[in-house]
Design goal:
There is one protein chain. The strands form four sheets. A five-stranded antiparallel beta sheet has the order 4-5-10-6-7. The chain has a four-stranded antiparallel beta sheet with strand order 11-12-13-14, with helices on both faces. The chain is 32% helix and 24% strand. The chain is of the alpha+beta class. It binds flavin-adenine dinucleotide (FAD). The site of flavin-adenine dinucleotide has 28 residues, from strand 2, helix 2, helix 7, helix 8 and strand 10.
Length: 297
């Protein structure tokens, strides 16, 4: 099928794009089009205008600072996946991005687009929440920052107004001696996950866990971080029994059944993937020796 009739616009500035959105309340922002174009083609949405961000300079940058990795609105998944500076300070980005769709989709689809789309089956919304990230938006009243924990309101629903544009997101960096891992399971590689889990485990110089958190894919309505420091805090990596997190993880999940998998199966899968991700992060910590002045892994 083809999209319904619409006008395509390619503004040269963010201000022009915002003014267009304000003028045409039915307009939609177009980034990589990997989620929006299928929706239009199936006529699930019929916007009057498409406002393409692709011609606006400056939205394609990845920047690294002491406390965050900032990703511009037109940075593709593939570009961020390949960014060595971002990987060096926040490996979780690459660990998760490797699981986002297929290379062809990652070459066009943007990380910010997947966050604005707010699909509970998307990997990057969960990573943004887990890193205490921030959404940078610009609208008719100027710029504002929305903490990731307040951005996602429900499946495909965010705190963004219809005349606002996300210009960038900032993923927070973890403390020193934090080790991360991401595990997911899909029916075929590159499909949306039946369930997925990201974990971050922070250890001291003696390999004792001082903090841990997790976030999930496809098993919660809205991406949210789960603090696992309670069950894991104080335990030695070499001796920890990861099943001690099961109750906390299961209480956090709210999976639903669909044609791909039942809720019970997703629940079981998410629990197992979380334990495996914890074990993988712990193995990395032990292999690295968790050096006192070690980098953020
Ligand atoms: C076959 C297939 C498999 C896929 N598998 C996965 C997967 O496993 N995991 C996953 O996470 N994703 C998956 N995707 C989706 C992919 O990651 C998309 O790239 C992403 O969801 C949207 O990014 P985009 O740049 O294409 O956004 P678009 O499709 O251009 O836009 C998506 C939505 O976000 C809005 N939007 C986009 N950018 C902005 C902005 N800067 N400001 C305000 N609103 C904005 C648009 O208006 C639209 O509503 C898959 C897609 C396909 C087609």
């Amino acid at each position: 099928m083809k999209p319904g009739p619409l006008r395509y616009l390619a503004p040269a500035t963010v201000e022009e794009a915002v003014a267009t959105l304000r003028q045409h309340p039915d307009a939609k922002v177009l980034a990589g089009g990997q989620s929006l174009i299928p929706v239009l083609s199936m006529r699930l949405a019929r916007p009057s205008h498409l406002v393409d961000l692709g011609a606006i300079p400056g939205l394609d940058r990845v920047e690294v600072s002491e406390s965050w990795v900032r990703v511009g609105a037109m940075v593709t998944h593939a570009r961020l996946l390949a960014d060595e500076d971002a990987y060096a300070v926040l490996p979780l980005l690459r660990q998760a991005l490797e699981n986002v769709a297929h290379p062809a989709i990652r070459n066009r689809g943007t990380t910010v687009g997947s966050i604005a789309h707010a699909d509970a089956a998307g990997e990057m919304p969960s990573i943004l929440v887990m890193t205490d990230g921030v959404v940078e938006a610009i609208g008719p009243d100027g710029a504002r920052e929305i903490p990731a924990a307040e951005f996602f309101l429900g499946p495909l629903e965010t705190a963004l107004a219809s005349d606002e544009i996300v210009v960038a997101v900032r993923f927070g960096r973890f403390p020193e001696r934090t080790f991360t891992a991401f595990r997911e399971s899909a029916r075929r590689q590159g499909d949306y996950a039946l369930a997925g889990a990201a974990v971050a485990v922070t250890v001291d110089a003696d390999h004792r866990i001082v903090a841990a958190r997790a976030a999930f894919v496809s098993v919660t309505d809205v991406p949210s971080a789960l603090d696992l420091s309670g069950p894991l805090g104080g335990q030695l990596l070499a001796k920890v029994d990861w099943s001690c997190i099961d109750d906390a993880v299961q209480a956090h999940l709210a999976p639903e059944s669909d044609i791909h998998a039942g809720a019970d199966y997703r629940r079981m899968l998410a629990g197992e993937l979380t334990r495996r991700a914890c074990a993988a992060a712990a193995a990395d910590a032990m292999a690295a020796g968790a050096p006192a002045a070690g980098g953020n892994r």
